[in-house]
Every structure is written in C-alpha cells, then in structure tokens.
Amino acid sequence: MKKSIFIVSLLAMMLFSIATAFAATEKTTVIDENYDLKSIKTLAIATPYYKPSALSVYLNENNRPNAPKLVTTDMIVQAAVDVAKEDGTGINVLSDKQINSAILNSTGTDITTLDKVNAKKLYKDNIKNYADAYVVFTFSNDSFVSMTADIYNAKDNSWILSYRIVNGKAENDTIENYNMFMHKFYRMLTLTNEK
Prior knowledge:
Elements: H1 2-21, E1 25-30, E2 42-45, H2 54-61, H3 73-86, E3 92-94, H4 96-107, H5 116-126, E4 133-141, E5 144-153, E6 159-169, H6 175-194
Parallel strand pairs: 2-3, 2-4
Antiparallel strand pairs: 1-6, 4-5, 5-6
C-alpha cells in the first residue's frame, strides 16, 4: 500500500513538473492607468517586428523532413485577425495591409515605399482616423520564443499597455505557437477590460 501511494505521488509530481515546464510565462504592465480599455472598439495591427529563428531557416534551407513552415509577418498578422474573431473579443481588428491601404487612399502616399522613420511618422499621424488603438508585436526567438505586444492610443500615440509572453525554445518558432500567443493576448485583453 505504501509503495503504491509512493508511486502515485511520484507520477503526480512528474506530471506537474512536465506541465509547468511547458507553461508559458506571461506579464502584463498597464502603463496608463486612466485609459479605459473598454473604449477600444477598433484595434489596428502594425506590421510586426519578426525574423525567423536561425534554426527554422537552417532546417528549411537543408530540406529537413522535420522543418517547420517558415513563418512570415503576413501569417502573424492574419493569425492576430483570425484569433480575435475566433475568441469573440468584440473588437474589430484591422490588419497592417488594411491600414496601409486606407492611408494610401486618404493621403496618396504608399507607406510601404517610405523609409522607417517617415513611414512611422505617417502611420502615427493617420492611425487616429481608422482605429481607437494600435498594437505593435515584437517577436524574439533566440533561445526562447517570446512575444511582446505594446498597445498605443491611436489619438495621441501614448503607450497604454505592454504584454509579454515567453514560451518554449527556438524550435517553437511556428505559426501554431504564435496562434497560441494570440489567444493568450486576447484573453489578457478581455480580462484586463473586465477589471
């Protein structure tokens, strides 16, 4: 009897340690306490800062059978838009291409042809016409895969909130992992809205 209780306890500890080893670490920092997150009805996605991991590039260049499909910024933006609809956030999410097209139509300037400094200025000057807030996703996939989402007020470009999630190792540089990040991001945004 003692032996079976010991074995069951040992198995429970192993399962718990495995579950926590793969759990994502999340941190939310509210910068502007006075901003009402419930006022965000339309959220624009700025073009993410993302570069595929060296491991993903290596595996794809050498046609390895276990190579994950290389992730692109377009795939990440599409995941952000799709997950917002799936999760029923009630937030209208606009892609970077939709915003770029709207800015082109209103100003006659193609933001994608400008250098980074001028493109950023044009974006910040015009985003208030299309969204209540915008989010800038930054991905890092060196030894761990992480995503930082910085949300800004579209009216005055002030920083509202920062969310960071870290998960797994460099081999988790996959669209499935980034989809999971987006689900957690929208869950955090919904929970923060309820407070």
